[in-house]
Amino acid sequence: MKTSLVFEQVKEKLPRIVDILFSLIPSGVGSEGAIPKLSKQDEKRLLRDGARWAVSEGYGNHEDLSYMEEGGRLAGADAELISDRALERGLKQVGTLGSGNHFLEIGRVEEIYLPEAADTLGLFLDQLVVLIHTGSRGLGYQICEDSLKVMNKAMSKYGISLPDRQLACTPTRSPEGQDYLAAMAAAANYAWVNRQVIMSQAQRAFMKALEVSPRELGFSLIYDVCHNIAKIEEHVVEGKKRKLCVHRKGATRAFAPGHPQIPAAYQQLGQPVLIPGDMGRYSYLLVGTETAMEKTFGSTCHGAGRMMSRSQSKKQSQGINIDQEMARRGVVARYQGRGTMAEEMPHAYKDVADVVETMDLAGVSKRVARFRPVGVIKG
Questions:
Q1: pLDDT for 141-186, tens place per residue?
Q2: Is there a single domain that holds both residue 373 and residue 278?
Q3: Is residue 106 one of the residues assigned to a domain?
Q4: Any catalytic annotation for residue 302?
Q5: By C-alpha distance, which of 146, 120, 94 is closest to 271?
Q6: In a shared domain, residues 172 and 42
Q7: Are residues 161 and 203 in the same domain?
Q8: Catalytic residue selected from 62, 133, 302, 347
C-alpha cells in the first residue's frame, strides 16, 4: 500500500502509529479476534468469494479488487471440502498476522531505479508505504495437514513413491488432486480476505494516530501478490502453448507487460512484484518481464531466504537487546514474544539486495524501488 505521506512529516509520531497498529491487528501464535462475530456461514462465503466478501463487508473498496492477483478470488474453491477442524481454526483468525516470518512493515521509499515505472505506481522518494506479509493462517495449515494424509494414502494407487511425506502428491486430474486444488483455492481466498481486513485496519490505525482524513492519508493498494500457491496457467513450452499447473513454492508471479491478468493501469509496466527483506534492512518492488515468461514460467523470487535456522538465530540473538538493536537500525518494533523476534532478526537472513540484483541482472524481474523499514509489528 502507498500513502500520500512523507516520512519527515510523521517521523515523531511513528511510535504512536506502530502502537495503534499493534493494538488493532492481532499478531502471534493463535492470534484471533479481529472479527469476533464471524459465523461459519460467513466463513464459507469468504472461502468462496475471497476479497469480494471483505469489500462487501466494508473492508476497503471495490477498486482494491483490480489491484489483486486473480482479482482477490481464485476460482474453483469448494468450502465443503474443508474439514471442521480447519474451519474452526480459521473462524477467529481473519484479520490477524500470526507468527513466524509474517509481519506488517512501514517503509519509506529510499531509492527509485525506474522513475517512469515509479510514477505509474504512484511512488516518490521519502514516501511512506506499508507491506503486509501473511496468509491463510491456521485454516491453510490444517488444509495442508489434511491433504497430506489423503495424498500419502493415495500415492500407492498411482505408483508414486517419495522419500518424504511432505512431498506427497497425486496426479492433478485425479479425484484427490482436484479436491486439493479446490481446497487450496479456498485457502487462497481466505488469505486475500485476511490481508484485505488487515489493510483496512492499518488505514484506521494511521488515521487515528495522525488524526487525518482518508483523503489526507491517501492510503491505497498498489498490488496484492501471492506465493506458495499452485495455479493452472497457459505457458509456451517448446514453441507450443500448454496448460500447466505452476506451483510457486518460495516464488511469486512476475507476468510480463501486456499479460491479460495484469491490472489495466499496469499493462505497459508488467506485474508489480513485492520482495520483502529482513525487518532491519530493506524491501523491494519490482516488475515482471518477458524473460520471466520465457525462462521461469512467469515467476521470480519471493524474499531474501534464510541464512540460518530459527534455532540458530535464537542462539545468536542471546544477549542482544532486541529493542535497542532495532532502534539502532531506525526501526520502531512491536511484537508479542521475544522468541519470534529472536528467530527473525536480520542476521538470520541473506541480504535481499543480492537476491534482487540477481533477478534484475538475469532479466527475470526489474527493480523499480527500494523501501527502508521504519516500523514493524510481528508475532
A1: 999 999 999 999 999 999 999 999 889 999 999 999 999 999 999 9
A2: yes
A3: no
A4: yes
A5: 120
A6: yes
A7: yes
A8: 302
